[in-house]
Structure of Sulfonate transport system substrate-binding protein:
Amino acid sequence: MSITIGTHPNNLATWILGHVEELQEPLRRVAGEVRFVRYDDGRRTTGLLVEGAIDVGATGTTPPIVAQAEQLDVVYLAVSEPHPDPGGIVVPRESPIRTLADLRGRSIAFTVGSWQTHALAVAVDRAGLAWDDVTVVDVPATAQGRDFLGAGTDSWLVVDPAYRQLADLTEVRVVAATEELVRNRSVFFGNGAWVRDHPAEATAFVDAVVAAEEWGATHLDEVAELLSRSSRGGTAQVWGPALTGRHWGVHAVDEEFLAEQQHAADLLYRFGVTPQAIVVVAAVAAR
């Protein structure tokens, strides 16, 4: 028996789990060998699941929606509390962009395909714009403040620590804060066939990430140090405020999350980001 977990530093629960041995012990008692596949870009998660390189993983809200719309066999397992990360849609302080509607004809840099695609869809919809009214520029999942500045765009969709790094490089202004756009949850999901064949192991994985979040909430200094050594960069001092204000916790998929995710899926389809409409609840593990 074994379980292979995909982990990247943009998902704290799996990143903590992969680095704290004591948190892995309960999972080993159920699943046997526990293996981790580490990578920097969370957007790789769906591909790794479908290939069978990993059994379970975690991302933001967008990747599982895209996977389901592409008729890939993925199953939701759990979700996190909302993450109101400092930042959001940000512009230079003297920019003429004052409202979301002012994004028309402008450019914005973010990690395309991450949760930020969902956030931009909400912003564009709220402003009454078309998706093509805004020019999208992709930056890596591990982009630092200098990478956002170097993108040469009119605006950025950026959160800590890159947001603080960007603010250290140039004066900025937040047009729409993260929590004004999306709840920004982490989503835990798995290869559908594996989940159906290994229900006990899938449940034990959820229990493990719940425990990892609980551990993180009471070990902020250790988590900050762990992240500072990851590809996300930033010092432990920069990570401190973001972790202190973080809403820790992972729980079962519930109706509130399903409504949020369905709204996101509908927007992404309407804007042509995904190839077909989906019913999100169809990808939920049996409860």
In short: The chain has a mean pLDDT of 96. The radius of gyration is 18 Å.
